[in-house]
Amino acid sequence: MPAVVIANTGDVPEFEGKITFNVILCVVIAACGGLMFGYDIGVSGGVTAMDDFLKKFFYEVWERKQHAHENNYCKYDNQKLQLFTSSLYVAALIASFIASKTCSKYGRKPTMQLASIFFIIGVALTTFAVNIEMLIFGRLHLGLGVGFANQAVPLFLSELAPAKIRGALNISFQLFITIGILIANVVNYAVGKIHPYGFRISLGIAGVPALMLCLGSLAIHETPTSLIERKKVEEGRAVLKKIRGVDNVDREYDSIVHACEVASQITQPYHKLMKRESRPPLVIAIVMQVFQQFTGINAIMFYAPVLFQTVGFGSDAALLSSVITGLVNVLSTFVSVVLVDRVGRRALLLEACVQMFITQCIIGGILMKDLKITGNLPSGDALVVVIMVCVFVAGFAWSWGPLGWLIPSETFPLETRTAGFSFAVSSNMLCTFVIAQAFLSMLCHLRSGIFFFFAAWIVVMGLFALFLLPETKGVPVDEMVDRVWKQHWFWKRFFNDEQAVEKRETEMIRPHLI
Ligand code: BGC
After folding, report:
1. CA separation (Å) from 60 to 64, 68, 280, 318, 354?
2. Separation of alpha carbons 229 and 475, rounded Å
3. What are phi and psi of 230, to 5 degrees?
4. Is any ligand 1 atom within 6 A of the Cβ of residue 41?
5. At residue 340, what are phi and psi to the nearest 5 degrees?
6. In the 8-state DSSP scheme, what is residue 275?
7. Which residues, other chains included, contact 162 with Cβ-Cβ below 8 Å and sequence gap of 6+?
8. In whole angstroms, what is the distance from residue 265 CA to residue 281 CA?
9. Would the CB of 104 count as within 6 Å of ligand 1?
């Protein structure tokens, strides 16, 4: 029997529900996870540029910096410093797999609480670090916090949001990431002149969002899906009523119960994830994250001050420029909040590819033409570079930034959702690690070519989005399989009926048996 197919007319039936105070409260508190992540992205670039920090933990780097002969592209190429930034992401990578288990077994809420505790320990260790070992140990704890939070928060938001505004609510996670980055940029700028412990203030302030998440998560509800999945059926229904603000939640409740029943038959989600029918959301989840990172965004987020100094700004102007790009990042994310559930995911992603491709090429072109090994860019050129970086960041901020998290959180069926999403989080962390570790060295060796390298990736991701990415706007999260994957021209071939699959598997095994 072919699987039941629900016609995809674009006329999406809605579950009943209002945007209640509960929904808003949950979103604000959960998005503190985004602040934790964002602050950390922004803070590392700033402190590694502070002399007090370098003198304390990386003395030889500071010394070399004083005597380094000028080479525009290689001034900051240093593996150890890059490791300080990147080490966090290795811990986050590992944590995301563990977090997938805690998410399913104990719920999204305790996983967020665990995240904030790891983060608070990490903040304490880095803020009061007396040597490099303590500093790195702290970074690893921060990484565990980031891994747990990035696993739990987007899932929490997707499951809690009413379908018609799920995109917008989910993007509040990204919004808080960008606000976290901006706050870190401003703090770095402000404390850079406080000697000798300004960097400790920067590192310590990271504890604020972690504390907010820790306390706030005591007050919020677990998601109905997670409760029902863990057999707390009546509590799940009660929470659903509360967060939807209506008495009649039968249809949504039934849909969740159905999804949970299917999920409960799967005792080994990772095993199920390797099955043929799990491939479409798995491939999309991983690829969205790889592409997100290979837009080159973190080359800018981690190293903007360094990049702006490379093109000839003084250190103050460079720090200020990174505050400006941080602001553009925050404001442009609002565009996504407004448009994602109206124009859909694909339109935003495709438009941004064009925008990001053009800006990367212009930046690369200017540097190739005018930035030699020594000497500065003419000031007009440097200004164009800053403007292009802003246009690039804007494009990213309303597309691949938020949607890199949103799409993987909404496309897995429940039975593989947490396991599948952990692949998304860990792919993000792995690629972030690679970019953090390699960008300054790549800039040194490829020079302006680095921007063409990212431009080439943007072409690839644009083609992928055009041909292989289905639209998920407005589809309830527990109905993705029938209404999205089984309707898509390419991915539907992964959902042949069971008999056909079994037959194919038997045919593949038979030759080995004979
Ligand atoms: C990405 C981060 C990036 C940030 C920039 C996030 O979605 O995962 O790596 O630094 O966006 O706003």
Report:
1. 6, 12, 48, 24, 43
2. 21
3. -95, 25
4. yes
5. -60, -35
6. S
7. 14, 15, 17, 18, 19, 23, 244
8. 19
9. no
Query: 107's torsion region: left (phi>0), alpha (psi -120 to 50) or beta?
Result: left
- For residue 337, what is the enclosing H or E element? helix 315-339
Residue with CA nearest ligand 1 atom 12: 178
Higher pLDDT, 14 or 346: 346
Ligand 1 atom at shortest distance from the alpha carbon of 289: 8
H, E, C per residue of 349-367: HHHHHHHHHHHHHHHHHHH
Q: H helices within 107-232, ranges in order?
A: 108-127, 132-160, 166-191, 198-205, 207-219, 224-229
Pick the residue whose CA is nearest to atom 11 on ligand 1: 401
Mutate to test the pocket of ligand 1, among 171, 176, 178, 298 (most ligand atoms within 8 A of CB): 298
The tokens for 248 are 């009649």
Q: Is the dihedral of CA 277, 281, 287, 293 positive or negative?
A: negative
- pTM of the predicted model as reported, rounded to 2 decimal places: 0.84
Which residues, at least 6 apart from 459, have a Cβ–Cβ distance to it below 8 Å? Answer: 353, 357
Alpha-carbon distances, residue 480 vs 8, 213, 229, 281, 457 (angstroms)? 11, 30, 18, 10, 28
Residues 6+ apart with CB under 8 A from 347: 339
Query: Quick one: which of 93, 92, 60 has its CA closest to 79?
Result: 60
Alpha carbon nearest to ligand 1 atom 1, residue: 401
Q: Which amino acid is at 237?
A: R
* CA 405 to ligand 1 centroid distance, Å: 9
Nearest CA to ligand 1 atom 4: 401
Shortest-distance Cα residue to atom 7 of ligand 1: 401
pLDDT band at 222 (very low <50, low <70, confident <90, very high): very high
329 CB within 6 A, ligand 1: yes
Q: Is the CB of 393 under 6 A from ligand 1?
A: no
Contact 243, 226 (CB under 8 A): no
Alpha-carbon separation of residue 495 from 265, 369, 481 (angstroms): 18, 51, 9
List, for residues 443-474, the tens digit of each pLDDT value: 888 888 999 999 999 999 999 999 999 999 98
Q: Which of 129, 115, 168 is nearest to 340 (CA)?
A: 168
Q: Is the C-beta atom of 476 inside 6 A of ligand 1? A: no
Q: Is the pLDDT of residue 180 over 70?
A: yes
Rounded to the nearest angstrom, the distance between the alpha carbon of 90 and the centre of ligand 1 is 16
Q: What is the pLDDT of residue 60?
A: 77
Task: Confirm if 309 and 370 have CB atoms less than 8 A apart.
Answer: no
CA–CA separation, 181 and 326 (whole Å): 7
Q: Are 454 and 297 in contact (CB under 8 A)?
A: no
What is the C-alpha separation between 405 and 286, in angstroms, rounded?
Answer: 10
